[in-house]
Amino acid sequence: MDVTIDGTTAFAIGNRTLHVLNVNEPSKPRPIGKLGGQGRVRHIVVEAGFAYITSRAKVVART
């Protein structure tokens, strides 16, 4: 799970889902959106209005 804040918007990832919350009142965060099906999400960065998410894939290599 990872969380980042951009202004009054918080972006949280976990459980294969990106959650977007309005945190204008930090004691009462309000959900404003979510996007599921993101795989094994690990980290998030928000830049210029875009959320960049990294995930970990299970890779099997044979030699």
- Biggest β-sheet description: 4 strands, antiparallel
| Helix residue percentage | under 10%
Shape: elongated
Q: How do the SSEs run, as a string of H and E?
A: EEEEEE
Helix/strand class: mainly beta
Summed over residues and divided by their number, the pLDDT gives a mean of 85
Count the domains: 1
Based on DSSP secondary structure assignment, what is the total number of beta strands?
A: 6
What is the strand arrangement across the widest sheet? 1-2-3-4
- N/C terminus separation: 33 Å
Gyration radius, in Å: 14 Å
SS summary, helix count: 0
Parts with pLDDT < 50 across at least 5 consecutive residues: none
Oligomer: single chain
Per DSSP, what share of the residues sits in E-state strands of 2 or more residues?
over 45%
